Amino acid sequence: MADADYLPLPEDFDRALVVVAHPDDMEYGGAGAVARWTAQGREVSYLLVTRGEAGIDTLRPDECARVREDEQRAACAAVGVTRCEFLDHPDGLVEYSLALRRDIAAAIRRHRPQLVVTGNHRGYWDVLGEYPDQADHVAVGRAVIDAVRDAANRWIFPGAGGERWDGVRGIAAAASPYARHAVDISDHLDAAVASLAAHARYLEALSGPMSDPDTFLRDEARKAAERLPGASAATTFEYLQP
Fold first, then answer.
1. Is 160 helix (H, G, I), strand (E, B) or coil?
2. Cα gap 143→102, rounded to integer Å
3. In the chain, which ranges are continuous DSSP H helix?
């Protein structure tokens, strides 16, 4: 039986907050949606849980952090995002914890988004469980889901980030094997490629298909668009309602 068509991701929001573990996480697929939203006049902010300091084997962590922060800000600029914040959780060692939930809940209260976007929290990249996800991605994705509820409860983490915020209408997890929704990025694929290409030093250290932003993103976007009627390029999300 053929796979069902994707549903359009609900876009009934004015403000979105992207929360991911590392510089480059959002750029591997989801940034095209961000480019669409900023072009429509929506406000999108980024929160990076780490500075990506363990991501390039040939660079010491302190130098790597500076490089990857600069590359992430350039990646944000390519899709129209001007607010990019970094936390200081350790790259590669992120733990699902109350501290992580508190930090993310505080950011949600500060930015007051109606949509929160994160990465794959499922533990695997595929529904068969053959390709494990990276531990930081899983910890951050799980913490984001819980932090949305935390931010809405005045008695949880009181004072963190300001007044409680219960206005989040949905959580969109990019690159999930359980994606059922997609965003048409037909007019924004070039921006998505430029956003990933901004991670130049990081890409230099990679090998294989993921080191070529143009080919990788265009192939993935074309495949996704086959299940989103009317689109020539798309990016997929698992959509959760808090």
1. coil
2. 9
3. 31-39, 61-78, 98-111, 135-152, 189-197, 200-204, 213-225
Token digits of residue 147? 């932090």
Q: What are the φ/ψ torsions at residue 115 (nearest 5 degrees)?
A: -125, 130
Distance set, CA 159 to CA 88, 132, 150, 163 (Å): 20, 37, 12, 7
Give the relative orientation of helices 213-225 and 189-197 as an angle to the nearest 10 degrees: 150
Q: What's the whole-model pTM score?
A: 0.97
Strand partners, 45: 17, 83
221 Cβ contact list (under 8 Å, min separation 6): 32, 185, 189, 192, 233, 234, 235
The model's pLDDT over 93-122, given as tens digits with 9 standing for 90+, comes to: 999 999 999 999 999 999 999 999 999 999
Report the C-alpha gap between 233 and 144 in whole angstroms.
Answer: 27
Domains of the chain: 7-240 (3.40.50.10320)
Residues 6+ apart with CB under 8 A from 186: 225, 231, 232, 233, 234
Residue 230: exposure state from Cβ atoms within 10 A (0-12, 13-18, ≥19): exposed
Distance separating alpha carbons of residues 39 and 122, to the nearest angstrom: 30
